Amino acid sequence: MPGPGEFELIREYFTSRFQTGSRSGTADNGVELGIGDDCALLLPPAGKRLATSVDTLVADVHFPAGGDPYRIASRALRVNLSDLAAMNAEPLWFTLALTLPHSDPAWLEPFARGLAETAHEFGITLVGGDTTKGPLSITIQVTGACARPLRRDGASAGDIIYVSNQLGAAAAALPVVLGEVTVSPRQQQQAETAYYAPEPQFAVARAVEGYASAALDISDGLLADLGHICDASQLGAELNLDQLPVAVLAHSLQADAAVETALTGGDDYQLCFTVPARHRDAVQALQLPITPIGHLSEEPGIRCQWHGKPWQPRGTGYQHF
Amino acid sequence: MPGPGEFELIREYFTSRFQTGSRSGTADNGVELGIGDDCALLLPPAGKRLATSVDTLVADVHFPAGGDPYRIASRALRVNLSDLAAMNAEPLWFTLALTLPHSDPAWLEPFARGLAETAHEFGITLVGGDTTKGPLSITIQVTGACARPLRRDGASAGDIIYVSNQLGAAAAALPVVLGEVTVSPRQQQQAETAYYAPEPQFAVARAVEGYASAALDISDGLLADLGHICDASQLGAELNLDQLPVAVLAHSLQADAAVETALTGGDDYQLCFTVPARHRDAVQALQLPITPIGHLSEEPGIRCQWHGKPWQPRGTGYQHF
C-alpha cells in the first residue's frame, strides 16, 4: 500500500501539528512565517546573540531503527537541545530534515507527536524542514538566544572541573535498549528513560553562567569531551575518580565496569564545566546537582587517580568513524 | 585502510578551510564563533528578519552517488541558496550535516573545496555542522537576512505569472549526468552545468521585490511549484505554452518532449513569481531575463493552452515518495 505523497505527508503530520505564525503578524518566539514557504521568516530577539547547532542521528548508528518512534523523536530533539543548554542559550526555533525509506503513517504519527510534545516542553518552535526518501536518518538544527554564552575555550589551569548529575546511565542502558540483555521491567524502564530522554541541563548552565570559565555537554563520554575543553584552552586535566558521580544504573547493570562506563560512555548529555577556584564557594552555595571531579592543569592530557593510585582507562570515548 | 577519526576529519577538511570568528570579536557576516563549540554564536543584522531553509540531498535519489564530489557539494549549497533567493534574502550563514559511509580523503577534499568555493562566491559562511557515519546524504541549512520577503501567499487573480531564464535544462540533462545516454563532449558539459550548477536567482528577486505579489523557486517542476502559489492564495492559473521559455538543452536532448520537460521537469531552480497587472510596464522596463507565461485566475487548477488549444500535460512534477 503506497503511503501519502510528500506534500500531503508534510501537511498531515507536521504543518497541522506545528502551525505557527500568521499572514498579519508575528507569533511566539518571533516566528513570522513557519513551515510551508521557501524559507521560514524569523524575528531574532534584539540585543542577543543567536546560538545554533545541528546534529544528525542515523538509524542503527545513533538509535535503534526499530525503536519507538515517539521516543526516537523526543531523543533527537533533546540531544540537540542539550547543545543549546551547554551554550547557555534559550530555545527559540528548530528545523527537521527527515529521511525515510517510505511514508508510513504508523511510524510518522507517533514520531510527530513525540517531536511536538518535546518541543512544547522546552518552548522551541518547529519552523521548517524537509522530508526525503532514503535510509532513515534525522537531522535537527536548533537555534536559541544567548546573552551570556558558555564557550569551551575560556578555561585556565587550576579551574575546578564539575559534572552535572550522574554519568554512565545511558551507556549502561544501551545493551538493554538494543535488546541484547534482559532485565527486570523496572530496570527496562529506567534504561529506556536514561537512553531516550536525556535532560538538557538548561538550569545548571543558567545558574553557573556568572562563574563558569568553559562548558560543554557530554555526548561522546567524559574523557573525550573534557578533552575538547582541554584542547580549546591548551590545558590538561587531573581527575579524582573517587569523586566521580557514577549513575546507579551503571552500577546495577555493569557493576564491574561502572567507573569505566561513567568515564567513557556517551549519550548522557550531562554538563561538564570548569570554574575558577575563587568561585568555588559561590558555586557550592548554589546547591546544584553538580560534583567537582578534578581540576585543569598546564600539562597536556588527562590523568586519573583512583583509590590514591594512577589509573588508565581502556577507552577514551565514542569514535564516529 | 581506516580513514581519519571524526574529529581529525572535521578539523582537516572543514575547520581549517572555513575558519571564521575569533575569541576577541566578530568576523564577517556577524559570526562571533564558528565551527567547533557546542553551538555557533551569531549576531543577526539589526532590523531585518532572518530567512532560513533546510534541504537534504540523498545519494542516488537527489544526486548520483558516483558524481564529482566538488560538483555535488556546489550543487547542494546552490539548491539551498535558491530558497534564500526565492525569499529575497541575502546569504549569511549555513550549516552542513554530512553523513558518509566512510571517511575518504579522496572524496572529502574535493567536496570541501567545492563547498568552500561556492560559499565564497555567494558570500555565505559555514558556521557549524555534523559528520556522521551512514549512507551518503547531505543536509544543508541556509540562513539569510531579509528586508522585503517574497512569500508564496500574496497573489491575486489577474496577476501575471513570470518565470526567470529558461526551463527544462536540468531535467533534460539528468539522463546525461546519470550516464544513461551518450552525447557530444560539448553537450555533456552543458548538461553537467545545467544539473550541477543551478544559478540562485538573487538578482531577479531583488529587482522585482517592489512589484512581485508572490514568488518561489522551481525545484519540483513549474506545474507542481506554481501549484503551491495557487494553493497558498486559493487561486488557479492559465498558462500559454507558446510563451514558455524552453531551454535550448531541452530542445536539443528531448525535442519531442521539450515542452513537457519544461513544464514538469525539476531541478532548474528558476524563479516563478506573480506581478499585479498594474506593474506590468514597470517590470518590463527592468529588462530582466524573465518571461510572462500566463496569469492567475479564480478557478482552482492549472489550465494550459498550446497553439490556441487546451493541452493536458502527462505529469505534474516530481513526487518525493
From TrEMBL, chains A, B:
The gene is thiL
Cite the binding residues for Mg(2+) 2.
Answer: 55, 83
Where along this sequence does the record place binding of Mg(2+) 1?
55, 130
The residues listed in the UniProt record as binding substrate, with positions renumbered to this chain, are: 62, 267, 318
**Pathway given in the UniProt record:** Cofactor biosynthesis; thiamine diphosphate biosynthesis; thiamine diphosphate from thiamine phosphate: step 1/1
- Give the residues the record marks as binding ATP: 129-130, 152, 219
UniProt keyword list: ATP-binding, Kinase, Magnesium, Metal-binding, Nucleotide-binding, Thiamine biosynthesis, Transferase
Tell me the residue numbers annotated for binding Mg(2+) 3.
Answer: 38, 83, 217
List the EC numbers from the record: 2.7.4.16
* Keyword Signal in annotation: no
Q: What does this protein do?
A: Catalyzes the ATP-dependent phosphorylation of thiamine-monophosphate (TMP) to form thiamine-pyrophosphate (TPP), the active form of vitamin B1.
Residues the entry annotates as binding Mg(2+) 5: 220
- Record's protein name: Thiamine-monophosphate kinase
Residues that bind Mg(2+) 4, according to the entry?
Answer: 38, 53, 83
Q: Which InterPro entries match?
A: PurM-like_C_dom, PurM-like_C_sf, PurM-like_N, PurM-like_N_sf, ThiL-like
Q: Which domain of life is it from?
A: Bacteria
Give one GO term, molecular function aspect: thiamine-phosphate kinase activity
Q: Which reaction does it catalyse?
A: thiamine phosphate + ATP = thiamine diphosphate + ADP
Q: Which organism is it from?
A: Microbulbifer salipaludis
The UniProt record lists the PurM-like N-terminal domain at: 36-144
Task: Fill in the misc note.
Answer: Reaction mechanism of ThiL seems to utilize a direct, inline transfer of the gamma-phosphate of ATP to TMP rather than a phosphorylated enzyme intermediate.
> What family is this protein classified in?
Belongs to the thiamine-monophosphate kinase family.
Q: Where is the PurM-like C-terminal domain?
A: 157-306
Record bears the keyword Zinc: no
* Pfam families, per database record: AIRS (PF00586), AIRS_C (PF02769)
